[in-house]
Amino acid sequence: LGQYVSPGTTLVSLQALDPLYVMFNLPEQQLPHLFLNQAVSVNVNFGEEGKVVPGKITAINSKVDQATRNILVQATITNEKALLYPGMFALVKIWLNARQNTLVVPQTAISYSLSGDYVFLIKDESEAKDGSLLRVYRQYVKVGERQDNEIAILEGLKLNDVIVTSGQLKLQNGTRVVIDNSVKL
User: Fold this and answer.
1) Could you count the other beta carbons within 10 Å of the beta carbon of residue 76?
2) This prediction's pTM
């Protein structure tokens, strides 16, 4: 009591308990998938079982961190019972918009080059019904998200297109091929 304090000296830390702001970083590659008011689930290790709290993204930083190539994102969650405290550890899940009717192919089917990503498309060029003449042609594609061993194709292929999934190094445009599905992979 009675101590002289100079301007700018920190005396106490003020914390709001409701709502709470969850600050987290994401790689810059995820930036196209983020938007304001996007749903998030925050899993907090509170007690023995943990607690999942719904929230939404309320701010996205306007600059990517030069050192880490991450972008800072803020989500807001409610804390009506004041069970959570600022500074607690949390696992944040972001809910992305579901894509309907996405065409996926094995990652082994995609060939990468400086001119673009492509697959070899198999076309039946036979006119007679008794024998088939199959040839492959390079088809450039636009790839999307990767998950496990599959990759989404955004442009360049249609449903029921037949593509080569292995042995692309031996192929060129117009190469004749035979489909042999008897080999067990």
Assistant:
1) 17
2) 0.56
pLDDT in tens, 67-124: 999 999 999 999 888 888 888 888 899 988 776 788 999 999 999 999 999 999 999 8
Decide: 156 and 141 in contact? Cβ < 8 Å.
yes
- 3-class SS string, the chain: CCCCCCCCCCCCCCCCCCCEEEEEEEEHHHHHHCCCCCEEEEEECCCCCCEEEEEEEEEEEEEECCCCCEEEEEEEECCCCCCCCCCCCEEEEECCCCCCCCEEEEHHHCECCCCCCEEEEEEECCCCCCCCCEEEEEEECEEEEEECCEEEEEECCCCCCEECCCCHHHCCCCCEECCCCCCCC
The type of residue at 70 is N
Reported as a single tens digit per residue, the pLDDT across 89-99 is 888 999 887 76
Give the neighbor-by-neighbor strand order of the sheet with 150-155. 103-106, 150-155, 142-147
**Residue with the two structure tokens 């709001």:** 16
- What whole-number distance in Å separates Cα of residue 26 and Cα of residue 69? 9
